[in-house]
Write a structure and sequence with these properties.
The chain is mainly beta. The strands form 2 sheets. Strands 2, 4, 5, 6, 9, 10 and 11 form a 7-stranded mixed sheet that branches. It has a 4-stranded antiparallel sheet with strand order 1-3-8-7, with no helix packed on it. β4 and β5 form a beta hairpin.
């Protein structure tokens, strides 16, 4: 079992930056899992944001965040990060991290989920 807890969300002005963290705990270390970030804006479906392989060798980004967001992981600290730069009001959403057997754009491929952290970008 893996428990995931996100932190780092908050209110920021457009053009600003935030770094989200996803800390894992439990009997299994996240080094065995691919990790992903998804977001859900009010009234909208979940949207894939980014994913990283267990070895950090491969990363994926949604077109909407490519060039602005950077995913990384520190397996020694059991933590995954999402550095978000040049934030836009349309980035406003609840951001959730997830752990799965392989990197995927689809929520159904991730077995473990955090509760999410709110990111609000003001114009």
């Amino acid at each position: 079992q893996v428990q995931l807890v996100e932190s780092g969300g908050g209110l920021v002005q457009a053009g600003g930056s935030l770094r989200l963290s996803c800390a894992a705990s439990g009997h299994t270390f996240i080094s065995r899992y691919a990790m992903g970030w998804f977001r859900q804006a009010p009234g909208k479906e979940y949207e894939f944001v980014s994913a990283i392989s267990w070895s950090s060798g491969t990363t994926y980004y949604a077109d909407s965040v490519k060039g602005r967001f950077t995913i990384s992981r520190d397996n020694a600290k059991n933590t995954v990060y999402l550095q978000m730069d040049s934030l836009k009001p349309e980035d406003t959403a609840v951001y959730s991290c997830a752990a799965g057997g392989s990197t995927s754009y689809f929520r159904r491929h991730y077995a473990y989920w955090g509760q999410g952290t709110q990111v609000t970008v003001s114009s």
